[in-house]
Sequence to fold (260 residues):
Amino acid sequence: MYKPNVNSIQSVQHALQLFEVFRTNYDKDEFGVTELSKTLGLHKNNVFRLLATLSSCGYIEQNPATENYRLGIGIFNLGQKFINKLGFLRLARPFMEKIVSEIGESCYIGILREGNVIYLDLVEADHPVRIVSRVGKDVPAYCTSIGKVQLAFSGEDELNKIYLGARLKRYTDYTITSLPELKKHLKEVNANEYAIDNQEFEKNVCCIAVPIKDYLGIPVAAISVAGPCYRMSHDRLINDILPIEKKYAKEISKRLGYQN
Fold:
């Protein structure tokens, strides 16, 4: 999350705040000038000039049909450059493909950043009914399997820093919204070294995740298998999917120097 400071260049600060509007609105891809002006607290003329500048660089584009603005291909290319520099993604991809081949469900890889999960890659299964991709999005960690399995290895101080005094939004009837309840749950996740998301973020979507560890034994990412709940019974998650996930997560971790 962008946090301005006294040394910020104002025009750059406003551009980053504009990108934050797109990043934090999960269900909306386009915004009009008036809406952005109100959200950012800037005059419409300033917002228009900002959008025009970013559009000239390819980071913002205007939808001709709606005349609203959306992220441009420049942002995608920048994101891909960041992802490509994360070498473990290239390392992990073949193992994700093996998971999908053996299990027949989609596999994600994601990292934890400031209480959110950033989904970096996805290998999709060949099913007529599939879940909506989360790649490129960041969602709250406390209600996702990839997030919980990494939060579980955070210390008490870190959890308090992220969540103490914060509101844990309820996304479904299954979302954990109490910090004490979350801490209790994360202790179980830590002991088991896997986390299940049973419709906690999205209705009818179930996931199970295991950590990827570096040479110090610290989780640096996690992989999850996800699918519609009618295909992801608890027995299947634990008996069929989890052993395969753990096997390949261990292989990825070994290549990052983890020894166990």
Observations:
- DSSP finds nine helices and eight strands in the chain.
- The first helix runs from residue 10 to 24.
